[in-house]
Model the fold of this input.
Amino acid sequence: MRSERHRDPITQKDLARMAGVSTATVSKVLSDSPSGIEISEQTKDKIRQIAREMGYTPNASARALRRRSYETVGLYFPRSYGPWVSSVYSELTRHLSYELEKAGQGLLIMMAPPVETEGKVILPRFLEQREVDGVLLAHHVSEDLLSVLASLRIPYVMLNCAAGFKYLCVDPDDFGVQIRAMEYLYGLGHRRICFVGRSLYHPSYRIRREAYEIFMRQHGLQPYVVLSKKEIQSGFSEKFAELAVEEICSQPELPTAISFYNDISAVALYHALAERGFQIPRDISLVGCDDIPESALLRPPLTTFRFPAQRMATEAVSMLLNQIRDPKARFPSIRCEHEQIERGTCGPPREPLSGLPDLFNGIPNG
Amino acid sequence: MRSERHRDPITQKDLARMAGVSTATVSKVLSDSPSGIEISEQTKDKIRQIAREMGYTPNASARALRRRSYETVGLYFPRSYGPWVSSVYSELTRHLSYELEKAGQGLLIMMAPPVETEGKVILPRFLEQREVDGVLLAHHVSEDLLSVLASLRIPYVMLNCAAGFKYLCVDPDDFGVQIRAMEYLYGLGHRRICFVGRSLYHPSYRIRREAYEIFMRQHGLQPYVVLSKKEIQSGFSEKFAELAVEEICSQPELPTAISFYNDISAVALYHALAERGFQIPRDISLVGCDDIPESALLRPPLTTFRFPAQRMATEAVSMLLNQIRDPKARFPSIRCEHEQIERGTCGPPREPLSGLPDLFNGIPNG
DNA sequence: CTGTTAGCGCCTTCAA
DNA sequence: TTGAAGGCGCTAACAG
Done:
């Protein structure tokens, strides 16, 4: 009795005719709205039965038009992501997509407009045309966009934006993780610790770097941030690694440990350091942050910190959906705790801590 | 004169009222349909002007309901992607999203249902509810799903599926690239070449492996595929690397070169090999495939092959959009050529090619 | 408990 | 060259 080809999808009208009821009844039964309770169990069953047999699926456009809701959220990405960063975010996308699916929501990818148009805010089509009920903002985003979002009354949640508690955010505890990394290295006996990272303009970078500097000063140590000048920041990881290692090696006193802004930087420098003859962790200890998959493959594997990506996705999704359901309610932002992944790139500094002069330690090609 | 808050979005009716014309006229002008030519330039200008001033944007749901088209395509991903693989695909997503945006199309992420439900085909909601005009299938996909897609008359294009010319595909030239890799290693003098890869069930793996075996046999050499037994395939890359290197080292004759199914495997084994004392490329030459970003960071950096991801995305999108526009038309599949990225992991074999006995060469911990 | 009615915003005849 | 009318599929309000 079922048509082989769904050339014309079945509608509620069809079901109504077959069940001998009105379309309104069908609608009440099949939409999960609370008004459905006024229907007799018998009718409900019959309609559901027929719907199943006929392979009925609601027309999302019609539903959205009528309900003024889309059961879809947007994921807003800056366009500028390179392959490295995007690999971190693809994991996030996976988790978000999974969480949203569980909640019956779709995920629409929205890439930011190209940078040429900066200044005036250009909304991606799906925001303009209101095809989403809310937006997840991954990475940081301009104030202008936020105010447009607000004026359009589109709920949003920021993810990994380090934008502060002014907004609804799900963020890693950037400050905390950096302090923890420093305590760890300091506890091992390191004093000449430098900080290396590339994403100079990411709020997370700034927070971690600040935590690093505060820690160093509090312990009477001189902070040293490698490649902190913006001119050097462009280009690819290979080039970045070269420059960073060169800068490190040209210091009068070599560091005994490096705290990296993230694993990407750590992996980038890892081989360049080894090539210069640094034995890890004998000559230098390394700590990363984020636990990207390749970190575990290094030999020795990278000691790093991990944030609960899965949980952050879950939280962000539920915050957004709550916000959509009740636009007036205010929810607290969330800052996620890190977990230390202790592997093989850290050890005590090679030289004794006792007050010996910090002589050059004979690094080849240094 | 413009409302500060768009609490009620402007509709064509509003515009019609303001311009003193009917909604039909507004629709004709603003929809890019060919019927718009019947309107006088003057009226057109006036309407467009007002629309711009009022910040009118069409309601996508209403438009979709009426036109039965959504200006949106789905991207179908298997759920099982781990972080490694997803990093490769996130690049693809970026390119696809960009291409689609240029064409005014949205991108909806559709994750496959969990594997538990295998057997019966479960369509993701957005396919069922027809919220997309077509689908891009990344990675390979079950025959069942394809037949459902066909019966629903939803156009699709397969990307990286190695599904053969039976379907509309955009694929890398798996066979060609593997032969090229072999020719290269063979040309350097290598004879004991083994093949390493993890994705035993991916059609691309099978094709490349087959090309490897054919090449070896044609040259009178014994093929050797490492970790070809499926029991060992589960687990993470670290474990895989351990097992693979162990298997390689336990051979009576060590290989002088490894051809990897992909860069992921190559990167995974790289450090494990180095740890065993292999000097690359002195003791062993390595060739990868795909050119993932971390390949360039290894020291020496990995020699590999690259496929034009950007172009593949462009092609796939244009094929799909053409198919959507004209469902009856048949387009040819596309197989993309590789480009060799020669870096530092290949050299001639260490031992002379002359008929000396293949003695164990003194690898530590071997 | 169920049916009738009236749109959501847009587009497409068909008529003027 | 333009307008009036109807309907895409669904749902909410109001009657029975």
Notes: Residues 21-25, 28, 38-40, 43, 62, 64-68 of chain A lie near DNA strand C (CB under 10 Å from a C1'). Chain A has three domains: 12-58, 72-172+310-339, 175-306+341-355.
